[in-house]
């Protein structure tokens, strides 16, 4: 059984594709369809991820997560969702949420506009906002 940690690669796998003279194009019509760029996260999985991440993040006093912390987040998420997200997928989703939160926060601070309509804003604000209003996103009003 191989250890599937977050960091590192399996050196026994050849990453070079075999030599191919011609690769047939099955369907070059990409109009009207989105190209898959990875995992499609639905809202319930994202909210569950935020909750699992928050549990670990608050426990380590809002510091940087180490490998074992990320694995704890992944294990909690997979247990609650009944799926098997990888550590890389979880880290990428958290990074995407952080970037989107930062963009939304900057937009709000610069324009003084109405509150963000982004569905994950309040949950992310409780984690990464300049002054977290409460501990635990599910206890926030």
TrEMBL record:
In this chain the Myb/SANT-like DNA-binding domain maps to: 41-126
Instruction: Write the protein's name.
Output: Myb/SANT-like DNA-binding domain-containing protein
Keywords for the protein's UniProt record, in alphabetical order: Coiled coil
- State the superkingdom: Eukaryota
Stretches of Basic and acidic residues bias are at: 19-31
**Pfam families xrefs:** Myb_DNA-bind_4
Which stretches does the entry tag as region Disordered? 1-35
Locate the coiled-coil region(s) and give their ranges.
60-107
**Is the Coiled coil keyword given for this protein?**
yes
């Amino acid at each position: 059984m191989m250890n599937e940690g977050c960091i590192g690669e399996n050196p026994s796998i050849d990453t070079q594709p075999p030599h191919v003279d011609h690769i047939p194009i099955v369907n070059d019509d990409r109009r009207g369809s989105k190209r898959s760029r990875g995992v499609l996260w639905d809202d319930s999985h994202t909210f569950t991820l935020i909750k699992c991440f928050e549990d670990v993040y608050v426990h380590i006093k809002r510091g940087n997560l180490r490998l074992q912390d990320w694995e704890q987040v992944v294990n909690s998420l997979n247990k609650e969702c009944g799926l098997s997200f990888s550590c890389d997928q979880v880290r990428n989703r958290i990074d995407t949420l952080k970037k989107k939160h930062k963009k939304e926060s900057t937009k709000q601070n610069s324009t003084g506009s109405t509150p963000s309509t982004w569905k994950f804003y309040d949950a992310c604000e409780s984690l990464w906002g300049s002054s977290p209003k409460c501990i635990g996103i599910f206890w926030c009003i």
